[in-house]
Amino acid sequence: MPQPAPQPYPNQSQNGPQPNQYNNWYGQHNQYSQRGPQNPYLTTLYPAAPAPTPTAAAIQTQPKRKFGWIIAVIAAVLAVVLAVTVTLVLRRNDSAPSAKDSAPSAKDIEEIYGTTLTSEHYDLQKPMLNVANSKDFTMHVTSKAIDGVAKSTTINGCSFFCVYTDPTLSMPAMVSHTFDRKHETLRMHGVSQPDGSTDSWLSSDVSMNLGFSGFPAYWLVQWRDENGGKLAKPRVTYFTVKDSQRADVATPQNLVLAVEEDGVLRISWDKVSGAKGYRLHVFQQNTAHDLMLDKVLVDTDKTSIRMDEFDDIKKCGGLGQKECTVDDRSSTRNGSLGSLVSQSEDGAMHCKASKELDLDEAYCSDYDLKELYGGDQELADKFMTQFDPQMDVSNGWIGVTALDDDNHESYVAAKSLEPLKSSIVIGEATWTNRKIDSIVKIGTPWGTLNDETKRMRAKYYVTMLDGYVHEIYEDCSQDTLKDSSLQEYECKVPGTWFTNLRFFQDEGDYHQYSQQVAAFKRSEPKTGLANSALVKAVGEAKAIDSKPLGQNGVEKYKPFGSTPYVRYVAENMLAMHESIDVSEYASSPSAPTIDMVVEEALGQNAYLYAMRGAGADGMRFDCRNDGDRSVLVVEYAENAKTRRDELYTAVMDAAEEINADNDADRVKQIENLLAARAEYDYEAFDDSKQLGYVEAVTRHPRSWGGGVLLDGKGVCASYATCFDAIADQVGLTSLTVIGFVESKDAMSHMWNRVQIDGTWMDTDPTWDDDGDHAGSAYQLKRANGLDLHDTFASGGWMLASSMAAYGGSGE
Fold first, then answer.
1. Which one of 6, 240, 290, 394 is most buried, counting C-beta atoms within 10 A?
2. Which CATH superfamily is domain 256-341+394-421 in?
């Protein structure tokens, strides 16, 4: 696998932020205003003349849709943001940062940025410490570039320069951008909210805006130049602010998001000593809309809670709201996340159908798009009847804070929902289900239907957090035969809480149905990646047994890490060390959280992936403080070593058959070998859908690991990790990539990325398996160029700050 350039490892002894402190998200409002001339580089902005409120036409020259449920107040919000922007600058002039605050010569750049952000890939600037939380930043942007932003649905203020709350640069802070076309400037400042202000984004009170607040450190990044061109090395500046708003309690650690077997999200974290309770947030951001919201979900004294244990704050269960009833909970389940989908695919189709029928009351989302589109009703109607996930679905994060006795919040710990979007149910696809049900009369014999109708009738249609309609084959194995002329079956919808009734003429009709459905499933896209959360270690820590990079005796496994920190952890886990001292890396203020490091190490090292197992039963993790040291505690199952060694033996056996003279042909040989030796494990995949991953992994323990080589069968994770392990041994530069597939049952998926003649190329050995040989439809396409494949951009498979050097995510 590819390795980062060697980096020095300074003896870092300062008291930096501890692991798991860097987690949260951001928001912004793109504005076009008239302001005085600005300096051409990133600078501190001092008071200037108030800016007039821009007109809708000035703001947007091409449609950018807004969230349906806030359209009624969007004009007020824009006005408020502008008012806050101006007032903050005028009120807080006396708190502008001094030169001493802005350029502390005592801080060594290498020490601040650590091994996560290196000069090889970033233009690292001198850090700024203890600046005022009202600090503003500006840069020069040409009027032509500003016009380009106005016409784009994908480029906004943060595409030029942004502030992030984590060192992997995946979670922007809450900021506001102001484009000034006349004077060719872009201005940015923080717009954080105070404790418990659940609707402060609507408030006209300037005290509701705390500037930059809520995080121990920030990373300012300039991505583009004044003409809108991407910088070869983005410019990064680390800074901290004077922030007295946080409670004197620790940040919650080990935040875990997991989708349970009924499709409901569970949120868990470690108990915080001295905390009165905890506050849950959902952060949502949509780059096309250029808008961010922070919604408080609930206050709780628990450390593990399901989304159906509380309801939307507007109805019940939130701050100052009535307690949720059983009916409230059962009707909404993941309903508090519903606002991330402003319009679903099912909703758009329903809207289109109702308009085509010229109904008096069209069933459309409550978008008031005509005004936003300059009075163009035809254009507004067009976008109302089309589902565009980039415009209609927000990025989302779950956040948790600890509360003190006065209900003040700690720093926020947050985790992205992106890897789970295609598994979190937000409701049934009502219009689609009704449309399909209307095609066939109840009791019509299954054998009389054509194949297309059978396939549609065998499924139940559900809307997930990605906004798509997911088609899920029903499990009708529970016979509820009653005194009736028909046989009635109660069918479960796997991965959801839904059930449905199906009627068959007789037992023979039902068996014909079952056999046909089993055949249909074999023709569906082959995915099945398990999104398993890290399991916490519970045993006592042992004596430090970790060794430095290159001294762990595991080179035969080709250990990989996109940074020295990740590789160090990967090497020590491959050596099965149990107490890994990570202080040298974790002490840097720009160190990623340990869970991010471990996730990449597991995903990019096939033997670690196999050792851990899809059920996460093979390895457990915890990061603990031992005096002035940070220690990663790892517990290994008894069979972890066996899993590693048996996969290595199989990989080396397979590698002997790869003998092509060039890299591209070696890729094709590996794909052909896997196709000839193995087949997709539909039984394991079906069990994961019908029974859940826990039971499926118990029944098929190697189908998510080395099964393709060891058992001749496996799901996508097995194909990808086996490909990666073989590729490493034959001299290829190889990675695994995680994302989701654009299908009617979109699921998480894993494929591979290899470097061919200096260019990153994607290849999918699972989808290329055509039987006894590999096809070429998904073979060696440019990175992020595989049809129907979307790469996760927020991490999981690799630190987000490293992705650009390894082909990126396509965003």
1. 394
2. Immunoglobulins (2.60.40.10)
**354 exposure class (CB count in 10 Å sphere: 0-12, 13-18, 19+):** middle
* Nearest CA among 810, 807, 796, 811 for reference residue 168: 796
- Whole-number Å distance between alpha carbons of 165 and 238: 10
Separation CA 787–CA 791 (nearest Å): 11
Where are the chain's structural domains? 30-241, 256-341+394-421, 345-386, 428-521, 555-638, 641-806
d(CA 11, CA 583): 9
- Which of 774, 727, 796, 719 lies closest to 526 in space, CA to CA? 719
The tokens for 392 are 């209609």
* Integer Cα distance of 327 and 129 in angstroms: 51
Q: What is the mean pLDDT of each run of 10 residues along the chain (811 residues)?
A: 37 30 28 30 30 30 34 31 29 32 55 91 92 92 91 84 91 88 93 59 46 90 96 95 86 90 91 94 77 82 88 47 52 79 89 77 58 56 78 89 92 89 88 88 81 86 90 76 68 86 82 82 68 72 92 97 96 97 93 91 94 82 86 93 95 96 96 95 82 76 90 93 97 93 75 96 94 92 91 85 89 66
Residue 809: closest CA among 345, 395, 220: 395
Give yes or no for a contact between 417 and 28, defined as CB atoms under 8 angstroms apart: no
Fold of 555-638: Ribosomal Protein S8; Chain: A, domain 1 (3.30.1370)
Following DSSP, what letter does each residue of 527-591 receive, concatenated?
-----PPPPBP-SPP-------TT-SS-GGG----SSHHHHHHHHHHHTT-SEEE-HHHHTSTTP
The token duo for 694 is 């826990």
CATH class of 641-806: alpha beta
Closest among 522, 523, 527 to 720, alpha carbons compared:
527
**CA neighbor of 754 nearest in space, from 653, 697, 669:** 669
Three-point CA angle 215, 256, 16, nearest 5° = 35
Question: In terms of Cα–Cα distance, which of 162, 106, 101 is closest to 132?
Answer: 101
